[in-house]
Amino acid sequence: MILPEVLLSEEQILKRVAELGKQIKDDYNGQELVLICALRGGVIFMADLARQLDPLTTQLEFIKVSSYQGQESTGKLVFSGDIAMDIEGLNVLLVEDIIDTGLTIDLLIKHIMAKKPKDLKVCALLNKNKVKHIKIDYNGFDIPNNFVVGYGLDYNGKYRNLPYVGTLPY
Ligand code: IMP
Ligand code: MG
Predict the structure, then answer these.
(1) pLDDT tens, position by position, 134-160
(2) Is 68 in the pocket of ligand 1 (CB under 6 A)?
(3) Which residues are catalytic?
């Protein structure tokens, strides 16, 4: 197997996740918070991030969407599993792996806002920095416009469990 070239090491990622966790903890300051993970890419990030937060006030939810095939966005978002809990009146933090074109986050925000949360904020580990019209409240890393894998991100379903973020040599 060809191992991806390291863009962000495991150490760099975990350090940043701890910083984001501390910031989120301070900002919500004991208030109830529902984290919604955009599956499948957000799963590793959310697992690490959630463990930085207060277990007495944090709940975990999941929503499943996809827009990618190989290295290209299909431009069409498919919802294949909605959240189960009622989030009306609750603080929600949407946890995404990466913001590329912004299509996914745009649709997810609309979808979640329709459920009338008290507040919705967005946390993304990676940002290719093309999207200016959406506020990313918690941003892990700005990265170049290359296709990346690892730490949740896949190429045709593979590499999600790579502990770092890397680029493929093709
Ligand atoms: P967007 O809708 O174009 O912003 O893309 C967001 C989604 O596409 C992310 O949640 C990822 O699942 C996927 N994606 C975008 N860029 C990459 C990448 O470089 N590697 C792997 N998946 C990506
Ligand atoms: Mg994703």
Answers:
(1) 899 999 999 999 999 999 999 999 999
(2) yes
(3) 100
